[in-house]
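Hi R.,

Here's the chain you asked about this morning:
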Amino acid sequence: MNQHYPQLQVLSPNTVYNCKNMTNSSSKPTMPFIKAHATGNDFVVIDSAKQILELTDQDVVSLCHRHTGIGADGLLRIAKASDYAVSDAHFFMDYRNADGTIAETCGNGLRVFARLLVELGYEKPGTFTIGTRAGTIRVTVSPDDVNFENISVQMGKAESHNIAKITVQTESGLWDGKGVFMPNPHCVVKTEDLNSVGTLLQAPEILPSTAFPEGVNVEFIEPLGEQHIAMRTFERGVGETLSCGSGACAAASIWARDNDLKAPWTIQVDVLGGTVFIDSALDGILTLRGPASVVATGFAKGNEWQI
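And here is the predicted structure, written out as C-alpha cells:
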C-alpha cells in the first residue's frame, strides 16, 4: 500500500541566491539548507533546482566547517540534470567533499539525495535515476518505506586496480592494501582488529605514492562472519567518517572475492554510524542499501558563515 510522504517545506522557489553577492551584502540575506545524514555520513544539502546558485570551493569549505559553519562531511547540491548535459535523469547530484574538492559520486549521499527528491516532491516514490559525475545512477525509494530506512542505490561493478602490490601505513604500522574503483578510488585493508590501525587523525600513507594520483579513500575491515564485516574509513578531502557507501561496496567486493563468495550474495557492513547492506547480482552489479535521515532545515546567514 502506498503511504503518504510529507513534503519538506524549505525553499522559496522565486528567490535567486548567489553566494558571491551574499558576501558583501549589508542586508545579510539568507540561504536555505537541509542538514541530513546516511549512517552518520553527514551532508549540507542546497537546492538549486529552482534557484540560480553559485557555490565556490571556499563556500563549500565554510558551510562544511564543524565550528564556524553548519558542519558536514560534504555538500550535496540539487541541480537540474540538463545543466550537466544529462538526458536520462531529471536531477544531478553535484557532490563536493568538505575541503571543496569534487568527487565522482557518493553512495551515502545518493541515499540522502534520493530521499530529498521524494520529500521535496521532485520525484515520486519508486525507482528513478540521478545524474552524477560517475554516470547515471538508479535508485529505489519504496512507496512503503515511509521512514526511509532501506533506500537502495545501484552502484555498478567494482573494478580492481592494476597495481597488485599496495602498502598502507598509519601511525600504528604497515598493511597490505587492495585497490578498487567504485568508481571512486578505494584501498581496502584487512585487519583482525579495527582499533589496531590507530586514531586515523592523519591520512594513511599509500605506497607507491603514484597508485592513486587523485587521492584515495582507505577502508579498514574486520571480519565478523562469513558475510559480515566491520569497517572504518578515511575519506580523501574529509578525514575519518562514520560511514562511506562506495567504500562499503569496495570493501564488500574485496571480502567476497577473497573468500570466494558466489553471487548473488549479501554482505552486512557495520560502520561507525550504523549498518548498510551490499547486494551483488549475478552480473556483479552492486547495490547499496541503508537508511537516510534529515536532521534539520534552516537558513545560512550571509556574511557570517563565509570566512
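One quick note: Residues 1-6, 11-28 have pLDDT under 50 and may be disordered.

Cheers,
M.
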